[in-house]
Fold:
Amino acid sequence: MTACPAVFSVRGMTTPVRTRWGDAGLPVELTSFVGRRQDIGAVKGALSEARVVTLTGAGGVGKTRLAMRVATELRRAFADGVRFVDLSTATDPAAMRSSVVDALGIHDQSTRDSTDVIADFLRDRQMLLVLDNCEQIAGDCASLVNALIRRSPRIRILATSRERLWVTGEYVWRVPSLSVPDKEGEADGARTSTAPAEYPSLALFAERAAMVGGTSPDREDWPDVAELCRMLDGLPLAIELAAAQTRMFSPAQLVRRFDERLGSLRGLDRAAPPRHRTLEAAIDWSHELCSPAERLLWARASVFAGWFGLDAVEGVCSGEGLPREKVIDTIAGLVDKSVLVPEEHLGEVRYRLLETLARYGRARLREAGDEKTLTRRHRDWYLRLAEQMAAEWFGPDQLEWARRLQREYLNLRAAMEYSLAPPLGEGRVGLRFTAALMPYWYGGCQLSEGRVWLERALASDREPTLARAMSLRNLASICAILRDFPVAEGALRECRALADHLHDPLVAAQTAATEAHLAVIRSDYATALDRATAALAFPGYAVRPERAALLPTLAIACALLGDYDGAASAFEEAQRCSAESGARFDLSWALVGRAIAALFAGENRAVIRFAREAMVIARDFHNALCISKAPTLLFCSTAADGDFTRGAVLLGVQRRICHALGVSGLANDAETVLINATTSQIRKELGERSFEAAVARGFALDLDEAIDYALGTEAEPAGAVEASTKAAEHSPLTAREQQVAELVSQGMSNKQIAADLVLSPRTVEGHVEHILAKLGLTSRAHIAAWIAHHRTGQD
Structure:
């Protein structure tokens, strides 16, 4: 091997494509995509004809990567986009459906079966749904797919599985290995070739070798590279694992070593498919080349579900044989060997094991007799994390905790499942989880899933503990929003009894606060005011930052009772509470209460200001429940101010936001009356045709554009109109992303862009991440170059 600059285009791992609202987009593939143009074309053609296409093939053949590329190329053909669902950690039907709900960003407020919820969400959408790693739950996955294609006529499903799903109308594409040179003749031709790009397997090996070590095969190495790729049957994963060893071995050495390894396996399992034996050999071989510490970490890291951070690895995997101070160097070794995949998100590097390698590591952990110990250690670490989050939620790091909850939820879910699954059945530990995780279920509007976990945990342990009281409160809050009032009331009755039993006045105050929340949802504002006042009468509760969650309830109750001064006073107290603690999540709801009071007082300009401030905060927290409320206030206040056309567009925006976020059935009686009355007024003023056209204009916006319109930031910034229009003609970016990209190209920081566009710096940061992932770029300088190319008409 000779050291030289990489001659192949190499793209590093970037953040998965996600909008601010949790759209489960497509992770950018680890390496450049070589040798799949024919497969891509075939699969795209199949999706134009068939409702369900399943990519099958051996592990490591590249099914997931092919699905990602096809979906990326087709995303603009689907009006409602693409959603990627990773089912590698789903082991039962409930977890599978929950993964789909999360990926779709559904915020359902009903008690219906989750299959019905998913089907209804997709019913009117034109969308491509990518279901990855279906094999371990193929039967249950097939049942869900059959239900969806019957009831959602405009969706297409692209699945990856080691076996076909056997669903109605399924088209199966067996993903082939990458092509390799023939043993006779072609390898010799490669010896004198300086560009073996006609063989994708060789190109992939060279690219990966350059990526991990800054080296590339020279002319004399190609016959050995070709021989190695033949030995590996052209399996991309096996080739990448082998190429990662070029830091230590030449291609000739790799051929000799792998030939010995493969020869020792050929007689072990004659029933196994040859390519499975080849992949097993490649993984075994990679495992043997790891240091003892790397092997240990590989096995121990298999207990994680999805992505994990350095602190989690240190907390769960360090110990005997792997000192804590050695963990980071050991991670670096596994990254170099292509065992761990890194990802940077918001300044933090996270890691994951590819699904095939995770299964291999779990088998090694089981063989060593350490699986139970490590799984429990994983559970305990995430329990501490959840309880730390709950303890610090009403503090200055609230937004960081909200984002971390989203990143860590797969692992938190796995830890809860471990605690509640028989025969372990540690219900008390499960209750500690459900007492802590309300911010995720409420903030992310995953209420139905939260209810399932709460009811499971409460049924598993009935001892009168503080964790049970907190879980009962959480269940009551969720069931109130879901409008299952009998269950909410029953949970609160038990919670009050527990407070008496525990002689805990703080629990009694917290219960009264939840009773106030329930009363507001039931439009019983007098009771809400009474219970909120009772809660704040407890001195120990009235001075806690937690009161921030009650003050919006008080503000809304006062506003709807016509007590303008009371609503303003509650809002001002919420502002002080937020300033003292640094927490802002509940301030968005206090702003909604203040806007309601202003609306009934006829202060329409104030309504717009308060509602927009609420939306900005809610958007940062991905709080779908709050973000769906503010447009109603904007729509009503704009109409009351006499701007009926914009009011009608805002009605369309409100419908678009609720539709896009899957938020339905949330309006109480007062809100419904207000919407209907304002709608009738605007329709009368504009006339039926103009009214419908304006509403359709608002509904036609995508989610980000709809939010921008509601915030009044939909206009182009000064000086950017002409360039932005020209650049956007063939751009994959939304109008807002195009604006941000233009300003990035001018050298502006996120803070400067935020000031220019009247956005928060966090929102701009999300836009920049989205732009990088959409365009497959890795730096702001690349964005500037991309903008320059578009201005000059280059691709």
Q: What stands out?
A: The beta strands are 2-3, 52-56, 82-86, 127-132, 155-160, 170-174, 215-216, 308-309, 340-345, 348-353. Residues 1-32, 185-195, 263-273, 715-729 have pLDDT under 50 and may be disordered. Residues 76 and 732 are 8 Å apart (CA to CA).
